[in-house]
Amino acid sequence: MKTFEELGVAPEIRKAIEEMGYENPMPVQEEVIPYLLGNGNDVVALAQTGTGKTAAFGLPLIQKIDVGNRVPQALILCPTRELCLQIAGDLNDYSKYITDLKIIPVYGGSSIESQIKSLKKGVHIIVATPGRLIDLIERKVAKLETIRDVVMDEADEMLNMGFTDSINAILEKVPEDRNTLMFSATMSPEISRIAKTYLRDAKEITIGTKNEGTKNVHHVAYIVHAKDKYLALKRVVDFYPMIYGIIFCRTRLETQEIADKLIQDGYNADSLHGELSQAQRDLVMQKFRQRHLQLLVATDVAARGLDVNDLTHVINYGLPDDVESYTHRSGRTGRAGKTGISIAIMNLREKGKMKQIERILNKKFSVETLPTGQAICEQQLIKLVDDIEKVKVDEEEIEAFLPGIYRKLEWLSKEDLIKRVVSMEFNRFLDYYKNAPEIDQPSSNEKGKDKKEKKKGERPERRERSRKAEKGYTRLFINLGKTDGFFPNQVIELINRNLKKERIEVGRIDLMQNFSFFEVIESQASKVVRALNKTTYNGRKVVVEVASENEGKSDKGGKKRVKETKKTKSRREEPEYEIARKSKRKDDWKQFFEHENDFAEPDFGEEAGWAKKKKKRK
């Protein structure tokens, strides 16, 4: 193993990082630092978050700066405000003993005027989110003609968030003879395309295996009925009393609901999602980083670029649609040589996603049964006893109160006193799990069992379902799906490209084989429909319209009836319905009628029966 001195790191930088506790370089630093210290060396580095990436690109960038020339010489692009601030803070720490080096973070959600003033005074390194940097370029304040090194950190996440056009525009402003470094957790086709376009004979450095999750993460799956997901979550959290982790949910609505339930049930939790203001997000993250919060319930988008040390667990409240999202989620634990646990709480319908993730990551989930009430109580009791052993006692402060305490408790024996102290803290768990029924683990043959029950006339209770958008949003249909190579980042990119002057808030995205749905703020829906209907995608005319709501009632037998109102009368003529009906793909048909959240099992109602009859007639 080489030392930082052998890698060519300057003495003043070594002094700063040694004070920070850096002893030996990590693998990514050994690979990247010597290469970046040279000129004309482009790099595509595949490495998970938490592997020492910031120091890998930060140390050589700082060392190459000509402090006497106060113009922008290095540019670092990253997806979020939180990551932008973190990188700038780390670079300032590394350059502690370099006089007059100026580093500025620029990001949205903060005063652009103060950032303009800082840029006008002169800076050496700019750390930026793409959107805010484009604003500053258009105002002719951020000038990139003198940039010699460009770093794109978490490039795959920036592309997933729809920043492709912004990145292209920024890179066109930077001199061609620059050094360019792309850091990514996964090698997607879009990453490859940008690398081929903007990098010259780039060296590919892979720490671990391509698209592989962090090696120090143990992957666990609990398979439960959809209705039992929240109860299962509580059991998992209770079984790990020292848990410090993130719970990932699919939508803002689900995120807020789960966070509210946890808080109501006495857990130290809070939510992080797109509907929070920047000030609210900052406050939540500050509490979480300082460990005043034990659990952060978040959407994938809100948690992009978050870098929090020492997370013990990541909990997937259902698996994400794509493997890359799972890689990013699980990579937030098990960092810097420490071990972590990535837990998936899922229902039977998600087993296919689990197999897909296992194939691509080349790792197996450990499918386990949920902890019993007794096992949970044992874990909580051990934690309580540990806390009592470790509590600090200030002899001087407490001494004056002890005589009165002794008199009050002298009638209790040592055994009675211990029992009372333990019970005072422990009764909540004893009371909850004393009579709590065990959660059934569904078996793969339950569908056949349900069919037999139906033949006997026993119909399981079904939930009402709708395809309504979240409050304040409008749900839109688009005639592009997975078969068109149309995924979430393409949805956002298509919107950004055709509504450049508008900042469109995109909500839930539901991708299907031949068509998709996405949600936007109600007030912006008409603009989005008008703009996108004038476009093409890969030579195909784009069709976007407001998706109808599926309003249904369940009769006594459990069958769904569709109200023949003006709103739903022509439902069978909806374009998305027609595409699903005409498609021979079973998945399209199922997805069209499937409820949008994971709590309910699929119910195709009369519409599915109607389709079968129609097929027979043909």
UniProtKB/TrEMBL annotation:
UniProt biased composition (Basic and acidic residues): 446-468, 565-585
Protein family membership: Belongs to the DEAD box helicase family.
Transmembrane segments: none
Short name of any one Pfam family annotated for the protein: DEAD
Taxonomy, superkingdom: Bacteria
Name of the protein in question: RNA helicase
EC numbers: 3.6.4.13
Keyword Hydrolase: yes
Annotated motif Q motif, positions: 2-30
Keywords: ATP-binding, Helicase, Hydrolase, Nucleotide-binding
Annotated Helicase ATP-binding domain residues: 34-205
Residues covered by the Helicase C-terminal domain: 235-378
Region annotation Disordered: where it falls in the sequence: 440-468, 548-585
Species the sequence originates in: Phocaeicola salanitronis (strain DSM 18170 / JCM 13657 / CCUG 60908 / BL78)
GO molecular function: ATP binding; hydrolase activity; RNA binding; RNA helicase activity
Lineage of the organism: Bacteria, Pseudomonadati, Bacteroidota, Bacteroidia, Bacteroidales
DEAD-box RNA helicase Q domain location: 2-30
Alphabetical list of Gene3D superfamilies matching this protein: 3.30.70.330, P-loop containing nucleotide triphosphate hydrolases
PROSITE patterns named among the record's database cross-references: DEAD_ATP_HELICASE, HELICASE_ATP_BIND_1, HELICASE_CTER, Q_MOTIF
